[in-house]
Amino acid sequence: MRCLGAWVLGCLGALVLCAGSAAFAQNAEAPALRKHRVTASGGVTWSGSYPIGEATATYRTNAPGNTPPPFTLFSAASTVDAVAGIEGRVGFTVTPDLAVEAGVSFARPRVGIVIASDAEVAPHALEGEELQQYIVDAGAVWQLPLRLSRRVRPFVTGGAGYLRQLHQERTLVETGQVYYAGGGLRYWLRGGSGATRSFGLRADARAMWKRDGVDFEDRTRLFPVVSVFAFMGF
Questions:
Q1: Under 8 Å between Cβ of 192 and 217
Q2: SS3 for 145?
């Protein structure tokens, strides 16, 4: 997980350094959104898996001594598995390069359990329950002053949100918080001059930190999120 965070931060740093070394005169020629307009995006998203806790079942042995070593029956490691979902985002362009936006995503991840250290059975995986997961977030998107081509421009993004997970056939609810940072590319199929409506494709790669929600330990979890959207600027 630390490697993932370092990789994302390294990519963001490289983008910023490239942007700083680029001539800012290119900014006028680079594609941009219209100022003080609404943008809408929608598409598919993929979230990576992350652990939610481990447990070991033991019992006391009859070995000699005051504190005989316990015997391990088995150990279990639980994860929330990787899953694809849907996501929609609505933003407002403060400037042609800076937008504030809010998003809503929905997915049905499944809890996976791996049983190990069992003397009678080889390690094996069990399929756990399916969750219904909703994330509502708000953040900012800044298009870097760097033109990659006549239609492509990179951006960085960051924000925070509210996590809601339903389980036990939607009878129990767990809530939490998420925080994210990342970047991506916006590709204009139409517009981009700042004078006409825009339409195109957007790809995001984010590192997401989760607090609370469905978890057996009080820990922050880190996992990757990759999204592909169609966007329109009104």
A1: no
A2: coil
d(CA 13, CA 98): 18
- What does the pLDDT average to over 196-206? 94
User: Which amino acid is present at 49?
Assistant: S
Residue whose entry in the numeric block shows the structure tokens 């991840």 = 109
- Burial class (CB within 10 angstroms; exposed 0-12, middle 13-18, buried 19+) of 83: middle
Give 88 or 126, the one with higher predicted confidence: 88
CATH classification of the domain holding 157: 2.40.160.20
For residue 2, pLDDT over 90 is answered with: no
Q: What is the torsion angle, in degrees rounded to the nearest 10, for the CA atoms of residue 35, residue 17, residue 103 and residue 192?
A: 30
Supply the pLDDT for residue 75: 77
Do 157 and 140 meet the contact criterion of CB atoms below 8 Å apart? yes
Instruction: Report if residue 44 sits inside a domain.
Output: yes
CB 160 within 8 A of CB 191: no
Query: In Å, how far from its chain's centre is CA 50?
Result: 11
Instruction: Report how many domains make up the chain.
Output: 1
Domain hosting 14: range is 2-49+83-110+129-233
Task: Provide the 10 A C-beta neighbour count for residue 38.
Answer: 15
- Given a cut of 80, is residue 171 above it in pLDDT? no
Would residue 123 count as lying in a domain? no
Half-sphere exposure of 17 (CA within 13 A, CB side): 6
Identify whether 75 is part of a domain. Answer: no
Tokens encoding 144: 């870097």
Consecutive H or E run containing 61 = none
Position 60 in a domain: no
Distance CA 203, CA 199 (A): 14
